[in-house]
Design goal:
The chain is α+β, with helices and mostly antiparallel strands.
């Protein structure tokens, strides 16, 4: 019996000073990536800020899209249908990292390799899109053409048959997800 599940990639622009600096370089609308296991975005993971006020204290995080950090965020949400086995592998991979989260850190140094197309790999360290790409790769959902340490948030939707389900203010997505049909694509 073939059973399917849906995962979600959330790309965001939180409007913080750090995001603005990254955006001025990348010229991309979204510079943070997260992976979610439900359409309500209640189970969502990434590598990012451990506290809203300090961008330099980063690591593995279970994100709260209702938090102050995401209050004014613009976003794009993509869905992908995968097998139950792939879903379970992804979940297990993330839970293994979560269980050892104190041993993981944010890969700030790795960010500097991306513009030069030079992978900078560090043990137990990820930046946001590197983490999401690693989850997808380790669970055999996607084989990336480039090293996961070079994957940018904007690369993720094009790495497989992701479907854009929403683009706009994250708070508007949450408002609409409380209605009968949570899927909404804005122009």
């Amino acid at each position: 019996m073939f059973s399917e599940k849906t995962i979600y990639i959330l790309l965001t622009d939180t409007g913080t000073i750090l995001t603005k600096m990254i955006k001025s370089y990348t010229k991309k609308p979204y510079n943070h990536a997260s992976i979610a296991f439900d359409a309500e975005l209640s189970e969502i993971y990434s590598f990012g800020r451990k506290t809203a006020r300090n961008p330099f204290m980063g690591g593995f995080v279970r994100e709260d899209t209702h938090s102050i950090l995401f209050k004014q965020a613009d976003c794009a949400i993509y869905s992908l249908t995968i097998t139950t086995d792939e879903f379970q592998k992804m979940h297990q991979y993330i839970q293994e990292i979560a269980a050892q989260k104190e041993h993981y850190r944010y890969n700030f140094i790795g960010l500097f390799g991306v513009p030069f197309n030079m992978p900078i790999k560090r043990k137990n360290a990820f930046f946001c899109s590197q983490f999401v790409a690693s989850v997808l790769k380790e669970s055999k959902v996607i084989s990336f053409e480039k090293d996961v340490s070079l994957v940018e948030p904007s690369d993720l939707p094009y790495s497989a048959d992701f479907q854009l389900i929403f683009e706009g203010r994250l708070r508007d997505y949450h408002r609409n997800s409380n209605k009968r049909n949570p899927v909404l694509v804005l122009p």
